Amino acid sequence: MTDASTDFDRHEREMWAGRAAAYQGSFAPLCGAVADQLLDLARVTGGKRMLDVGTGPGTLAAAAAGLGALVTAVDAEPSMVEAARLAVPGADVRPAVLPDLPFAAGSFEAVTANFVLNHVGDPAAAARELVRVTAPGGHVAASIWPFPQPPLQAFWGEVVADSGVTLPAGPPRLDAGRDFPRTPEGLAALLRGAGLDAVRVETVSWTHRVDPEAWWSGPANGLSTLGVLMRDLPAESVARIRAAYDRASAGLGDGLRTSALLACGRVVQATTRSRPARLAM
Ligand SMILES: C[S@@+](CC[C@H](N)C(=O)[O-])C[C@H]1O[C@@H](n2cnc3c(N)ncnc32)[C@H](O)[C@@H]1O
């Protein structure tokens, strides 16, 4: 991996470290809103061996278990693994970090990654790994947030602009050579390049209603780009952002529009690891 990918992944490990509860109390319901649709796209049904990658607190894993699937779930962050084990006691939940999954090729008939490919330093390698662990004839389904940002995601930038606070430089960005357009075409090309056949990408839109305190608690506890940047701001700057948030969040009662890109594809032939597995975990 390039240094930029490594920096990006290191930043991700640090951002999520110990933050399962913070995620559950803030952004998890937003990500979970498409859980059932993603399971449908991956053709998860009773008796199928399914893997949920980047499972977080196990929202999709729990829903898949409810369908009677044989659930395995992994996450890079230990506190998420703990939370998912509690949420899905019958599942095999383990720590694992994309793009190196500790499973033999073709181990699963359905593989899901809900808002995970937007958190990895090498999206193409991560997508290839999702395909590698899927059996021929099986399905992979993945979601990401689109760009340009929908109103719900753009909301935070508007709050900061209104606060008058100048944020420091953002966290590491993906290497330009490894990034992909966050559009239906860009996600489809990524998944086709990973070896998936019959790739479909749909844009789903909905209104997400939030409790203002719960929504603020995400960045306040270090989650999201804003949360990472706020960790190093003086208390006075955070207070100004909070005041701007209070002004803006008065209008949150009816919720804000958001959308996500949901993709699926079929595995037609077995693939192998493109490079040796890293042993350290
Ligand atoms: C936005 S959360 C989504 C969690 C869950 N899929 C959901 O729908 O609620 C992203 C998750 O991906 C995990 N993650 C980030 N990078 C990862 C990687 N390289 N390998 C495995 N998991 C990763 C994070 O720890 C976090 O739990």
Automatic annotation (TrEMBL):
Entries under CDD domains matching the protein: AdoMet_MTases
Record-linked InterPro entries: Methyltransf_11, SAM-dependent_MTases_sf
Gene3D superfamilies hit by this protein: Vaccinia Virus protein VP39
Molecular functions (GO terms): S-adenosylmethionine-dependent methyltransferase activity
Domain Methyltransferase type: 51-141
Alphabetical keyword list: Methyltransferase, Transferase
SUPFAM superfamilies listed in its UniProt record: S-adenosyl-L-methionine-dependent methyltransferases (SSF53335)
Pfam families: Methyltransf_11
Biological process according to GO: methylation
The protein, known as: SAM-dependent methyltransferase
Lineage: Bacteria, Bacillati, Actinomycetota, Actinomycetes, Micromonosporales
